[in-house]
């Protein structure tokens, strides 16, 4: 088995998405798919997830084309996790119309004890599973662990999530989740409160408004890359995290200045994701387009 | 009569403000008061407005202490304009509880034809009055005109506002107003649409999310200075505009790079305003504190 410097543990899904610009069935989705695809522009990344026997071979090929490690993609009897969502005209939040967990109910992520990844990302899954993975992790071999979550877990599994937060280095969440978690409207105070829950570094994604990075007592604020059209926001958060983590792994530098650049990189990769359905835009994307947009972006927000 | 390079025409008011942090009667307010006070850190500014005989001498002294020109502050029989507002916990939008126009109903701004200001700011007043002023303005002696407005006029005097927008160089408004005016949720598209209505330069203020600057085909995005506590948002928009215009007048440079710096300067002055009730924070403020916060801010958002 090959070893990879970065591993993501999350979901692989088949989505049905409706936006003001159109509707599409059978979109290849899931947090781990988006994350790994985005990270793979920068580093070798391995995906740990579960799918059913119905998982299309074409989707597997999409990941393989980007050299994403699939040794830990479990294929089991049953159907792949399915999500159906809709975005209203403001495109800021998805309305979940249907969730079919299917094989996700059987997901039991297991790390290889002999070769844990150096960088680990726990994408949005049940905090119980995230905690289960953290219990298997050997520090300091695994030197940087980040995680994501969602409002569903903040409301439903708060105690388990609190345990997870005590053990991760970086927590990435969106503005609504940060407010829900801390009961703080002010996002600066919310970010500081979350740091006190465990992760020394917190990234609060604000969609069209950019992102905040809290790192020890330091702070960084970056606007979003300006887009006249957001076609489909699905996967923006996961590709943000993937771009950010991929950049960190590639550079190998966990200092604050480099974390800032990683946040910008994640934000820029996400700005491509939302330009089309699912992974469609990322599949056409070249690394130099990302680099060019970062340079262009610098001009738009430096003074 | 002294002549001033910058004039603001707007309101001078007595406010009653309630925020989650407290309540205060008889707060010195009004768009022209806030604007002129902020601008006076950078340049000589003259205020044109109307007040009643009840206008407190202490308020006049506050303006005089900052050398704000008051030759055009009309004092007339009747009561000064009064506004009563309340902010809920999100502090993003004020709920107007009461408005007493009083002497504002008699306001007829008249420019001195022989010495128009070089820079003119039409703060938030009836677009009919704004248009009336614009009809008196002699170009090119008056070389730069900017204006503000509010949702009330967008909904109620759209035709008059459209006429105003055709004649100004810069239009500054907030995100909600930009969306209302253009029926566009996407603020980039909204800003571009507003440029097509007349003003070559548009500034969209986004409160805690910063601001956008649209100038010809160019674009600039800046986050807000991070504040853990926003005490009273009243006057933030007017001091933003005042700081921005004051900076422009002082530098005398209307190029895009300098407009960017002016927007940052306005945003930073506003970040002080919201730290206390009314003008209380600005009254204690020193120019070097503004400069220091701008430098500090640069570090928080450059990468």
Give the distance, in angstroms, between the N- and C-terminal Cα atoms of chain A: 49 Å
Rough shape of chain A?
Answer: globular
Number of strands of chain A: 13
- Regarding quaternary structure, what we see is homodimer
- Level-1 CATH class name of chain A: Alpha Beta
Order of helices and strands of chain A: EEEHEHEEEEHEHHEHHEEEHHHH
Q: Which secondary-structure class do the elements of chain A indicate?
A: alpha/beta
GO molecular function (chains A, B): kinase activity
Keywords (chains A, B): Kinase, Transferase
InterPro entries (chains A, B): Carboh/pur_kinase_PfkB_CS, PfkB_dom, Ribokinase-like
Protein name (chains A, B): Sugar kinase
Which tags fit this structure?
alpha/beta, Carboh/pur_kinase_PfkB_CS (chains A, B), 303 residues, 4-stranded mixed beta sheet, UDP-N-acetylmuramoyl-L-alanine:D-glutamate ligase, 9-stranded mixed beta sheet, 11 helices, homodimer, kinase activity (chains A, B), globular, Ribokinase-like (chains A, B)
Outline the structure in words:
With 303 residues, chain A is α/β, with parallel strands linked by helices. The first copy, chain A, has helices at 31-39, 57-65, 127-136, 151-156, 158-167, 175-182, 187-196, 236-251, 256-273, 280-284, 287-301; strands spanning 6-9, 13-19, 22-29, 45-52, 73-76, 81-87, 94-100, 119-122, 144-147, 170-174, 201-205, 211-215, 218-222. Chain A has eleven helices and 13 strands. A nine-stranded mixed beta sheet of chain A has the order 5-4-1-8-9-10-11-12-13, with helices on both faces. Chain A has a four-stranded mixed beta sheet with strand order 3-2-6-7. In chain A, helix 1 (31-39) packs parallel to helix 8. The first copy, chain A, is globular. The model of chain A has no long low-confidence stretch (mean pLDDT 96). The A-B interface holds A 89-91, 185-189, 192, 206, 208-210, 212, 219-224, 226-230, 257, 260-261, 263-264, 298, 300-303 and B 89-91, 185-189, 192, 206, 208-210, 212, 219-224, 226-230, 257, 260-261, 264, 298, 300-303.
